[in-house]
Design goal:
- Strands 1, 2, 3, 4, 5 and 6 form a 6-stranded antiparallel β-sheet that branches.
- α3 packs across α4.
- The chain starts with 16 loop residues before the first strand and ends with a helix.
- The protein is of the alpha+beta class.
- It has helices spanning 70-96, 102-112, 116-127, 131-139, 147-162, 195-201; strands at residues 17-19, 23-28, 31-39, 42-49, 55-59, 67-68, 168-172, 175-180.
- 40% of the residues lie in helices and 22% in strands.
- A hairpin with a 2-residue loop joins β7 (168-172) and β8 (175-180).
Length: 204
């Protein structure tokens, strides 16, 4: 029987110990993460559930692609560990039969290290939220204070830059609300800076 998610302390950051250039481990929320240099630039990684008979959750042995570098190996192990705890939390909430406190769920997911976008997708895929409602739940959560404003600013920057080459621009209350591109038109022969390069320059 798997341990209760409440017995796992995921409030702290993942801290790697040992030789980061050779063999290192991290103990976090009842899990053990390992990363080890194998040969040349190739690394091995693995994640164990120490509260569940040291069960191996996942490792690089289960994938065809090779992991290059210790940083990438540690990052992959951390992603697996966080997703494992996320899935454990969701599973136990669903099986509890109790009314779900979504504000607490969002807070716990943030503590685990789940991004706002992943949290939105979790509400949609695992709890049947509509996209708009899921987004509002996350953006209005106290633990993600200021996220809505950041998102709105970024969206407006994309719209402002995209409007330079758009075929149709809709303006509402003095701000660009939508842009439309006619994909059937041929590109001008004159070379232009790409949209992506222009948007990147805004955030350097």
């Amino acid at each position: 029987m798997k341990p209760n998610i409440l017995n796992r302390d995921f409030r702290h950051s993942i801290i790697w110990k040992g030789d980061l250039n050779d063999d290192c481990t991290a103990n976090w929320a009842g899990l053990m993460l390992r990363a080890e240099w194998m040969d040349k630039e190739y690394w091995w990684w693995c994640v164990y559930d120490m509260l569940d008979s040291e069960n191996q959750i996942d490792s690089s042995n289960n994938y065809d692609e090779s992991v290059i570098g210790g940083e990438n190996a540690r990052k992959r192990a951390e992603e697996v560990a966080k997703n494992y705890l996320k899935n454990e939390l969701i599973s136990q909430l669903k099986s509890s039969g109790e009314k779900i406190n979504y504000d607490k769920l969002i807070s716990d997911l943030k503590l685990i290290g789940i991004s706002p976008m992943q949290t939105i997708l979790t509400l949609i895929n695992d709890f049947g939220f509509e996209h708009k409602d899921a987004k509002n739940h996350v953006f209005d959560s106290p633990v993600w204070e200021g996220l809505r404003e950041q998102s709105d600013i970024l969206t407006q920057e994309f719209l402002n830059i995209g409007a330079e080459d758009a075929d149709k621009v809709e303006i509402v209350n003095g701000q660009i609300a939508s842009i439309t591109f006619d994909l059937t038109k041929k590109d001008n022969a004159k070379e232009k800076q790409t949209f992506w390069n222009r948007i990147k320059s805004k955030f350097k």
